[in-house]
Design goal:
Blueprint (H helix, E strand, L loop, with lengths): L2 H26 L6 H26 L7 H18 L2 H12 L8 H24 L3 E3 L5 E3 L1 H23 L6 H23 L6 H17 L5 E2 L4 E2 L1 H13 L4 E8 L2 H8 L4 H15 L5 E5 L2 E7 L3 H14 L4 E3 L2 E3 L3 E8 L6 H9 L10 E3 L4 H19 L2 E10 L5 E12 L3 E3 L1 H10 L3 H17 L2 H4 L4 E5 L2 H4 L4 H12 L6 E6 H4 L3 H13 L3 E7 L6 H6 L4 E4 L1 H9 L1 H16 L3 E4 L5 H10 L3 E3 L7 E2 H15 L1
Parallel strand pairs: 10-11, 13-15, 15-16, 16-17, 17-18, 18-19, 19-20
Antiparallel strand pairs: 1-2, 3-4, 5-7, 5-10, 6-7, 8-9, 12-13, 12-20, 12-21, 13-14
Helix pairs in contact: 1-2, 1-8, 2-3, 2-4, 2-8, 4-6, 5-6, 7-8, 9-13, 14-15, 19-21, 23-24
The structure holds ligand C2E and calcium ion (2 copies).
């Protein structure tokens, strides 16, 4: 065997090793269920077979002139090589189409057209033994290329060009990793093909294609970073990148979000946190309904399913089937756990227009009052509203659309001004006036509450610095705090720093904390309260009696004032039971030597009730609604003129 033949065989064997490695890894990892995986595997198998054909031909070339058997082997090797290898470019084009997220199912006819050149190529190969258009052997069995081969190269080039075009077309839809991988494959493969085209003796085609495909495997086919290993479905990162691809390439689809709404009871029912185990069960169940590569696990207990195209019936069927399954309990060990589910179905790009819209559907808190557990169409308007409010908050911080309103508080005994509560408002150019009940929880969830509360705090500091509150004998101005914010590591230091930068009397600031959350982490919170109280700041417990009553927090946190919620006052007026709750609350708080403020005083009768009970302070519409700073200043200065 000549050294040239040997080097060719070594080259083919190396290529074979690479493509076989690719095949083994693909099969071992069972990456074979997606269309894209199948095409990838097909290309590797063809390359493998091609290597065998070429080795067979190379081994027999020298003896082909003298041995009919060797001649047959050479002919067979070349023929089978061309027959299979010529369809690789068209398979590759379809592979690229799938990777780019193109919608192939709806446009069958158009894609049938694309396969015509491939059939033409196959026909040339099949006819070659008779026509010799592609290649032929001379009397010494030496191989010669002829014009037909060039035609095949040109047509294959056409496929590659289409693939490149497709790639450029959906460039934005691809993430960086995919882009790099595909460019790499193109460069390596094209280089190898061109070298062999120029000099047939340098057989670089197969090895460069094999290396290129291996690169594609590393970057595209291996999806470890996209898969939730425990559940065997895609993860949050995958839905982000896939939604991006779908939205940029303008595909229509539906997103079905499956959310377990009672994960909190799992722990109670089973003693340990079985959310993960249950999620796995649910994932397994979902996989019986749709292929795994349409299922994403976005959060613990939340799944997203993509239904490609506009198949309303399928979406309805899927939503109903899932919802029905949840009517039966889920079994973990010996426990039968009843899970509650909310299924939301939204179409892309109709209702869901961006990746963040999609994630929002998965992340958003479940609406409070739910009559049904399948939401679709206009049921999901709350998601849109919520997204709009989210933008309004960010916009508000940038464009200074927030305003602090003040609502005065009075001493019940003699109706003199005691202080005020700072209450934030948002005037949005698009949504109009927004109230904190709506936007504060959203600001908390998107992590902007610090900025909002900080804004209020600075405004209040500035107001105090103006001297007007002190001049009007106000004791303090109340600032609402989100407990999320006071748990921040250097919250206390920050507050002290701001107050000192304004040079104000710290006793003029009274922070309100809602008791419901105050119970969540005492040690951190009590530390903050202690530090700040030592500096002179005051504290109030807000919304006392709203259902989360926790006596501990009154004991352990050193509040100056307890604010009894308006609901307690209002029910005291309505019936005897309510009256008892109010009476005993007041008595108990007084025994704890805390001052009492009652909110929501709207009538003289209510005020009289509080006076009889000996409540210290009152706040409510009877005196004033929350009003702008200007109106507030007018109110308190006029009042002073009247009284003095
Ligand atoms: P809150 O702290 O309990 O505030 C009292 C709420 O009751 C205010 O609603 C006030 O307008 C309303 N109110 C006062 N007197 C009466 C009355 O006589 N009748 C009736 N029907 N309502 C009365 P608002 O301003 O909409 O604030 C709602 C909630 O938003 C507040 O409840 C507070 O939890 C939160 N919030 C307001 N401003 C801020 C802020 O700057 N930061 C934070 N973190 N939360 C805030
Ligand atoms: Ca408050
Ligand atoms: Ca309150």
């Amino acid at each position: 065997m000549s050294s040239i033949t040997l080097s060719k065989i070594v080259m083919y064997a190396a290529s074979m090793l690479i493509s076989t490695t690719g095949i083994l890894f693909t099969l071992l990892n069972r990456r074979t269920d997606k269309q894209q995986n199948k095409l990838y595997l097909a290309m590797l198998v063809i390359l493998d077979l091609n290597c065998m054909s070429e080795i067979l031909a190379a081994c027999n070339t020298i003896r082909a002139a003298v041995s009919p058997v060797a001649a047959m082997a050479v002919r067979f090797g070349h023929f089978s090589y061309f027959l299979l290898h010529s369809i690789v470019p068209s398979i590759f084009l379809f592979y690229v189409l799938y990777v780019c997220g193109a919608n192939l199912s709806g446009k069958r006819k158009r894609y049938m057209l694309v396969t015509i050149p491939a059939f033409f190529i196959e026909a040339i190969v099949l006819l070659n033994p008779a026509t010799k258009w592609m290649y032929y052997y001379d009397r010494n069995m030496v191989y010669h290329r002829s014009w037909g081969l060039m035609v095949i190269y040109v047509l294959s080039g056409l496929y590659i060009a289409m693939a490149i075009f497709m790639l450029l077309f959906s460039w934005k839809a691809l993430n960086r990793k995919r882009r790099t991988a595909l460019i790499y494959f193109f460069t390596v493969a094209i280089l190898g093909i061109v070298v062999q085209l120029i000099n047939y003796e340098i057989r670089t085609e197969l090895i460069s294609e094999a290396i290129g495909l291996l690169g594609v495997m590393i970057a595209i086919e291996i999806e470890d970073d996209r898969i939730d290993a425990g559940m065997g479905v895609y993860n949050r990162r995958a839905i982000k990148s896939d939604m991006h691809t779908y939205i940029v390439s303008g595909r229509s689809l539906s997103l079905v979000c499956v959310k377990i709404t009672n994960t909190d009871m799992i722990k109670r029912a089973t003693g340990t946190d079985n959310t993960e185990a249950l999620s796995k069960l649910v994932a397994e169940y979902l996989r019986t309904l749709v292929p795994r590569y349409y299922i994403y696990s976005t959060n613990p207990g939340t799944f997203m399913i993509t239904v490609m195209g506009t198949d309303e019936d399928k979406v309805t069927w899927l939503s109903e089937t899932i919802s029905e399954r949840f009517e039966k309990p889920w079994k973990i060990g010996d426990n039968e756990i009843p899970l509650k589910v909310l299924v939301m179905a939204a179409d892309v790009p109709g209702r869901i227009r961006s990746v963040s819209d999609a994630l929002y559907m998965a992340d958003s808190p479940v609406p409070q009052k739910l009559e049904k557990n399948i939401l679709k169409g206009s049921d999901l308007d709350y998601l849109l509203r919520r997204a709009a409010v989210e933008s309004a908050i960010s916009r508000g911080l940038e464009q200074h659309n927030f305003e602090v309103f003040y609502q005065p508080t009075y001493r019940v005994s003699d109706n003199t001004l005691h202080g005020a509560e700072a209450l934030i408002r948002l005037h949005d150019p698009e949504l109009g006036n927004l109230f904190p009940d709506e936007f504060i929880p959203i600001a908390e969830q998107i992590g902007l509450i610090d900025d909002v509360d900080d804004y209020v705090f600075r405004e209040v500091c500035e107001f105090i610095k103006s001297g007007i509150p002190a001049l009007n004998l106000m004791e303090s101005i109340n600032v609402n705090l989100s407990v999320l914010q006071c748990m921040q590591p250097d919250f206390a230091e920050h507050v002290i720093e701001v107050a000192e930068s304004f040079g104000i009397d710290k006793t003029m600031i009274n922070f309100e904390i809602t008791e419901s959350i105050a119970a969540s982490d005492y040690s951190a919170l009590s530390r903050v309260v202690r530090i700040l109280k030592r500096q002179g700041f005051r504290f109030s417990m807000d919304d006392y009696g709203t259902g989360y009553s926790n006596m501990q927090s009154i004991f352990r946190l050193d509040f100056d004032i307890i604010k009894i919620d308006k609901s307690i006052l209002w029910s005291a007026e309505k019936g005897q039971m309510g009256q008892i709750v109010l009476d005993s609350s007041v008595r108990m708080i007084r025994q704890m030597r805390r001052k009492i403020l009652v909110e929501g005083v709207e009538t003289e009768h209510q005020l009289q009730m509080l006076r009889d009970l000996g409540v210290d302070y009152a706040q409510g519409y009877l005196y004033s609604k929350p009003i702008s700073k200007r109106d507030f200043i007018a109110l308190i200065t006029n009042a002073k003129h009247v009284t003095s």
